Each structure stands twice: as C-alpha cells, then as structure tokens.
Amino acid sequence: MHEKIRSLHLERKAILYVRQSSAHQVLHNRESSALQYAMRDRLTSLGWSRIDTIDDDLGRSAAGGVARAGFDRMVALSRQGRGGCGTEGIAVCPQ
C-alpha cells in the first residue's frame, strides 16, 4: 500500500473515470484508452478491491457546455462519500 493511502480510503470504492474528448480520439487513439483502463490494475495493486469504471463520456468534449453524465455521476458519488476517485492521476477524493 502507498504511504498516503489509508484504510479509510480503501473502505470506499475507487472510481476510475475514463474519457477521451472526441469520437476521433476514441477510434484512433486506442493506446490512450488502454492506458486509462489499465489504471484499474494500478488501483488494485494499491489495495482497492471495489472499483467502478465510469466510461459513459467517451467521445464527449468538456468544451461548449456538453453534458457529461459520467463526470456528474463520479462527482456525485465522491461528494456523497460513496467512492474516492481520480482522473488521469489527479486525486479528487474527499479526505
């Protein structure tokens, strides 16, 4: 277990948010998708046993006010204390 990860973190499920901004990226940047999904293995190696992967927003840009249901769900779960989450290595978990 990593020194900054405590049992209180592991008690919540981990939420892995996977997204690419355009349909073109989804189709042509498969390595990026594979790397994002591989983060699940990293979470397991850090001690999480319950991991939800949210990938509802593949191909949806954050620009222009486009609704991103997956992102909204990730934030809601985190705010409710029902999961800890991160995106592209940036933790957005409540302490």
Keywords:
Resolv_N; Recombinase family protein; 4 strands; 95 residues; 4-stranded mixed beta sheet; Resolvase-like_N_sf; Rossmann fold; alpha/beta
CATH fold-level assignment: Rossmann fold
SSE sequence, one letter per element:
HEHHEHEE
Any idea of the CATH class?
Alpha Beta
The percentage of residues in β strands lies in 15-25%
CA radius of gyration is 14 Å
Mean of residue pLDDT values = 76
Report the CATH architecture: 3-Layer(aba) Sandwich
Inertia-based shape? flat
CATH superfamily: Resolvase, N-terminal catalytic domain
Note down, in words, how this protein is organized.
- With 95 residues, the chain is an alpha/beta fold.
- 40% of the residues lie in helices and 17% in strands.
- The chain has helices at 7-11, 23-28, 30-45, 69-79, and strands spanning 13-17, 51-54, 83-87, 90-91.
- The chain has a 4-stranded mixed beta sheet with strand order 2-1-3-4, sandwiched between helices.
- The model is unreliable at 87-95 (pLDDT under 50).
Topology:
Elements: H1 7-11, E1 13-17, H2 23-28, H3 30-45, E2 51-54, H4 69-79, E3 83-87, E4 90-91
Parallel strand pairs: 1-2, 1-3
Antiparallel strand pairs: 3-4
Q: What would you say about this model in short?
A:
With 95 residues, this protein is an alpha/beta fold.
